[in-house]
Description:
This protein is mainly α. It has helices at residues 5-41, 47-72. The mean pLDDT is 91.
Amino acid sequence: MKIDWAALGSVFGVSLLATVALVGLFTLGIVGLSKQETASANGGSATLARSGAYACFALCAAAVAYGIFLIVT
């Protein structure tokens, strides 16, 4: 049995990058929602923070759906 170390390293690198990107996007969404609450408490407009947070959550959901699509097909 021969292990293709280059392919294994490539899969590891892509998996690590995708994980960090998804966690980062989700974190940005949570931060956006907390800024929205702070802005509304201070009497300001919070639509930009809310829509940015929703965009981050939508990108996370799209990435998860794409991953499921790749597994199923």
